[in-house]
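Q: I'm teaching a short session on how sequence maps to structure, and I want students to see two examples side by side rather than one. Could you give me a first protein with its sequence written out and its structure tokens following it? Keep the formatting plain so it prints cleanly on a handout.
A: Of course. Example one:
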Amino acid sequence: MSPAPDDGERALERARALLRPDELRASARTDAGYLDLLRDEGSPRPTAAQHAMNNRLVAAVYERAWRPVWTAVMGANGLSAGGERAKAAADLGLGGEQRVLDVACGPGNFTRYFGERLAGEGIAVGFDISRHMLDQAVRTGRGPHAAYVRGDARRLPFDDGTFDAVCCYAALYLVPEPMTVVDEMVRVLAPGGRIAVMTSYGREHPLLRSALGLAAGTLGVRMYDRATLPDAFAAAGLVDVAQQIRGVTQFVNARRP
């Protein structure tokens, strides 16, 4: 007699049920504790920053060391990692039996936090391309309302309008084709759902913007201006677009009507 599935396995199967097309859902591997949709290793054409995100050591110390240092560099003006999670949850209006997608989830710190705010059949799905990050997420971030998927965020494997909330914190300045990722996040957002993004901000002064852009470019990190993300959300038909600038970091959230 097979043992009964635990809460983490049940959450993983709820995440599997959301995958499309059907062939992909059926073929997804789970031997590592997450749904693996890819056969390759690591990020496509990785930059120095992306190499770090695909590093086993960085994945292991991300929350205690790497993330605080990176937050200080990004100039979040005293907003701690816990404060960022709380802000994201508030901007997304989390609770109940929602379906939540955490894009570029890393080691699952936000995904786990989101899942703890859900109930019943609610599920927070952490989505990332890095095996090492997801290995860490499975070790520390599984639960009755949190599960993980390995895939390419430029082609999210979900139907239109699947999720009640979509989050992407500290990743858009790293990923290839970031505006394609933004389009995909908006596509899978359900009517009435909310989206929240935290990314880089390049300042308005031309000289400072150039200096920040040069330093960021060396590492393969993009710097965004004030208008790009709010304009993209508005052009996609989202409403209640709000933006907060903190140092060289910006938080942008919006709602699908």
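Q: Perfect. Now a second example for contrast.
A: Example two:
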Amino acid sequence: MELTFAAAFASSALLLSNFASILLASSRLKPRRLIPPPRGKQPPVSIIVPSRGVEPFAEETLERAFSLDWPRYELIFCVAQPEDPVVKLIDAAIARFPNVAARLLIGEDRISANPKLNNCVKGWQAARHDWVVLADSNVLMPKDYVQHLMAAWRPETGLVCSTPIGSRPDGFWAEVECAFLNTLQARWQYAGEALGLGFAQGKSMLWNKPMLDENGSIHALAAEIAEDAAATKLVNSLGLRVNLVASPFEQPLGQRTLAEIWSRQARWARLRRVTFPLFFAPEILTGVVVPLIFALIAAKSAGVSLPTTALGVLAIAYVPECLLAWSKGWYLSLRSVTAMIVRDVMLPVIWARGWLGGAVEWRGNAMTIPTKAMTELEESI
């Protein structure tokens, strides 16, 4: 009886926390809507776009960057190697939109083990304006991209970010990536913000350049292997907040393979483990696997049907998750629940992999992630 009660309680508590995170995230998220340019002063903005290789939808994401509804902005494209095939695409886009101030800078400054950050340094130094956006090249910027970022800035803000929302998946594994990005990672990030735990996300980052320059400039983001983790810690150390936009921006996915998803999720897990080990440790409890195991233990002890129990747990876990995606206009299909189940089966393995050290790959660049976080976590317990 004690085992039945303990297992049932653990399962219920985990499912309740899952549901609470959906409610918290939903309270912070807004469906997509067009924001007109603000009246009055509209400060000029520099948008730095680090690029490497030709990605799916590259021409569309480039065209979107040149079509923003903001009166004064400049685009600074950063590429590490002159022979990169994306150079031709960027040059062609600059030629097609002569009315938009845009430059392509080639080369890198090796200030860290993070190739993306190294690629951005020259762009930061070349930026002409006090407001600077670091935007990944695969972000599908809406016309009101700058408006959404500016609208999230408050007097106590040190940084505004947006999580990526996966869209346009081509194939089942891309739908699994949507399940990772949207109703899991974005959901928990917005739930954390609702609780006062704002974490930066490197996809889109709006900085006040004078503020960051006074506190180490872009070189300060080399303090951690992941620039968004360094940004989070820097902003918090200044007594400021990381805010998220109310309507996060799309990242069109196209085709994905299991190997690509594994590589990406394992890399992110290991980066989270190194930079925020105490927050990473309980990630094993997210998803449906652990509460399902506890529920089945309780059902078996109580003589309750195991298939019925499993179906009940899956419904409690995934119906609210689907409703969150539907209410915010995120991708949802008949295969979404299956994709969520596959994602949750992968989560414990990814979590375990996160505790191991070694090199990972970022767009062809090897990044060595240290293992010191394990020692730091053990010392803190």
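Q: What should students look for in example two?
A: Point them to this: The first strand starts at residue 45 and ends at 51. Also worth mentioning: Confidence is low (pLDDT under 50) at residues 372-381.
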